[in-house]
Design goal:
The chain is mostly helical and about 90 residues long. It has one domain. The protein contains four helices and no strands. Helix 1 packs across helix 3. The protein is elongated and about 45 Å long.
């Protein structure tokens, strides 16, 4: 039960999207720099779709915490996902 803490879920919910973005960048665009990568996806108008795709691994961590009945950690994942979603809404406007 040591993983049943709000901060564990919050950190997992924030770090998994970043890890997914790094993996996506590494395997898809090896020749671009990170700034060129963000400029390219912004020019192609797929920034929101890319960042939304990167949030998906958070749902996997939510279900793992939920199945193991780590309710506090699952709440932390929901909290971080809501924070990232609000950030995406702000970016779009």
């Amino acid at each position: 039960m040591r993983f049943n803490k709000l901060w564990v879920g919050f950190v997992a919910g924030l770090s998994l999207p970043v890890l997914a973005l790094v993996i996506f960048f590494t395997y898809s665009f090896k020749t671009l720099s990170i700034s060129d990568f963000f400029m390219m996806i912004q020019k192609m108008d797929i920034l929101t779709q890319t960042l939304t795709f990167c949030i998906l691994p958070s749902f996997l961590s939510f279900f793992v915490f939920y199945w193991k009945q780590y309710n506090k950690a699952a709440q932390g994942v929901v909290l971080s996902t809501m924070l990232l979603t609000i950030t995406l809404v702000i970016i779009n406007f």
